[in-house]
Amino acid sequence: MKAPIHKNIESQVHTVTVQELKAPHFDPNWHFHPHYQLFTVLEGTGKRLIGDSIQTFGPGDTVFLGPDVPHLWRSDPAYFEAGSDLITHGVVLYFQEDFLGKDFLEKPEMLGLRQLLLDSKRGIEYKGALRDHIREELLTQTNTEGFKSILKLLTLLDKLAHEPGGSPISSYGYVNTYKVSETERMQKVHDYVLQHFFQEIRLGDVASLAGMTEAAFCRYFKARANKTFIDFVNEIRIGHACKLLLEDKWTIAQIAYDSGFDSLSNFNRNFKKYIGHTPREYKGNY
Question: For residue range 21-48, what is the model confidence (pLDDT) as tens digits?
């Protein structure tokens, strides 16, 4: 497996870097980088991990991330199968805080933008009309160069700073403690859970994968993920169950076992704990 990276996406030519991503699956590596990132999914489904947040994603998923926020859009298993004709498609824009000079954000007129960039350290998810506007602007940016690309970015950031439609992704108490030297260990844990969450996951097996005792691994994981390992596994399972419930093809009992729960009662209890509704209520509401 390719080692997770402290991603280098520096451009020697452009202040604002825009990439249109088309591939059989999104980058499966848990990673972070020193750039701000605005990303929208045009095609593809899977699990989205940002900071201490775990969500399913699909077309329309649009987020703004601050520097060094660890993240991963993990495509569903079907995208990795041999012979699959599935495709993922997204547009991502990168810039650094000093892209207009080190003192630019200190100007009094930049107060709203400074707050937006501060909020982005927890990640921001966009919905509704503002999300649609971001998607249109990102697609336009793929064909914009030079000074116009900077003007368009500033105009978009000003809109994000002053209009409703964004909500934080990571929890209020989230503190980013990841280091480049530790990322490979967490990548192994994430890969293992995402590939085996529908089966029994033994704490000892995962701790051994990380090269730790069970007790040391539990402390390590909670300090960096802001949640227990059991909560992490259950959130992955519940996210998968939510997706299956909305597809409306299986019974709740089938979904419970397909998501890795050993009994229907255990599934119902955990679903209510993490979602706030029973599976049947969730299905009816959405």
Answer: 999 999 888 888 889 999 999 999 999 9
- 170: DSSP letter: S
For residue 268, give the nearest of 250, 286, 285, 281 by alpha carbon.
Answer: 281
φ/ψ of 75, rounded to 5, equals -65, 150
H or E, element range at 38:
strand 36-43
Task: Match 């909560």 to its residue by tokens.
Answer: 231
State the DSSP code for 248.
T
Tokens, residue 25: 């699956």
CA dist., res. 84 & res. 94, Å (int): 30
DSSP state of 31: B
Please state the domain extents for the chain.
Answer: 17-168, 197-285
Domain 197-285 annotated CATH 1.10.10.60: yes
CA distance 136 to 91: 10
Q: Taking a C-beta distance cutoff of 8 angstroms, is the pair 122, 169 a contact?
A: yes
Rounded distance, CA 250 to CA 145, Å? 48
Q: Which two tokens stand for residue 61?
A: 């998923």
Q: Which fold has domain 17-168?
A: Jelly Rolls (2.60.120)
- Whether 242 and 282 have beta carbons less than 8 Å apart is answered as yes
Shared fold status for 17-168 and 197-285: no
Answer yes or no: are the C-beta atoms of 13 and 39 closer than 8 Å. no
Q: Which of 2-11, 49-58, 79-88 has the lowest mean pLDDT?
A: 2-11
d(CA 152, CA 139): 12
